[in-house]
């Protein structure tokens, strides 16, 4: 069995376990995964299993289906593949059901998330991808969008997470209210290296940087000076509840 993470930009919004022979993705409500967006066709694509392999097939959609940057008609899926649906802001990540094999463990250990553990965006979870991940309230510019309508203290272009040679770091883009890592303010021309468990304060939210599937939703441990200022509930919940297709 395999699973899909459904994302809108960098935000992980749903998780699906694939137990049935095939699942459909499209804008019509009769699809297994229903995404209502103009650039997504009625029955856009499908993922099916054959001879213990998983395949993705594009159903002659108007804007295409992509695995990575390759537009596909039919393609065998490998764990870790990123599937982009048309030219929409939605995508999927194809993953093993659980980290049994060594290669599966390596895939999952190279994936990181940023999870809101206290404040305005508590419970939100974002995938940190390769290259640069831009954070701020400008929806057109940023990968992680933190709307100003929810937290006005977020700048249009607030901060950036960098990924190079399996190292992660974060810089601040001259934001009005700055960015803090474990209570240390990021200087205007500085970057701070990130390690799993680090806590990042952006606006009125404390986020935790974690290895995927090893997220820690516990009480903030490294950002205590910000906790009284925020006075928002902690996130004690579990991961996103998956839907199972049988």
From TrEMBL:
Stretches assigned to the FHA domain: 23-72, 133-186
Entry protein name: FHA domain-containing protein
Signal sequence range: none
SMART domains: FHA
InterPro entries assigned to the protein according to its UniProt record, in alphabetical order: Cell_Proc_Reg/RNA_Proc (IPR050923), FHA_dom (IPR000253), SMAD_FHA_dom_sf (IPR008984)
Coiled coil: none
Organism: marine sediment metagenome
């Amino acid at each position: 069995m395999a699973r899909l993470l459904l994302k809108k930009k960098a935000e992980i919004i749903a998780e699906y376990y694939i137990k049935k022979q095939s699942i459909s993705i499209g804008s019509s409500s009769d699809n297994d995964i229903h995404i209502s967006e103009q650039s997504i066709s009625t029955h856009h694509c499908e993922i099916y299993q054959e001879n213990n392999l998983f395949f993705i097939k594009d159903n002659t959609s108007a804007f295409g289906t992509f695995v990575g940057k390759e537009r596909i008609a039919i393609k065998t899926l490998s764990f870790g593949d990123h599937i982009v649906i048309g030219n929409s802001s939605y995508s999927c990540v194809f993953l093993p059901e659980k980290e049994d094999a060594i290669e599966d463990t390596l895939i999952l250990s190279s994936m990181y998330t940023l999870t809101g553990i206290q404040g305005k965006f508590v419970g939100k979870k974002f995938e940190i991808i390769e290259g640069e991940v831009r954070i701020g309230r400008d929806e057109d510019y940023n990968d992680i969008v933190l709307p100003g309508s929810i937290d006005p203290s977020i700048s249009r272009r607030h901060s950036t997470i960098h990924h190079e040679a399996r190292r992660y770091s974060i810089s601040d883009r001259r934001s009005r209210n700055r960015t803090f890592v474990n209570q240390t303010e990021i200087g205007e021309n500085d970057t701070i290296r990130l390690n799993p468990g680090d806590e990042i304060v952006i606006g009125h939210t404390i986020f935790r940087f974690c290895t995927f599937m090893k997220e820690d939703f516990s009480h903030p441990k490294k950002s205590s000076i910000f906790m009284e200022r925020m006075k928002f509930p902690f996130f004690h919940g579990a991961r996103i509840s998956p839907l199972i297709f049988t």
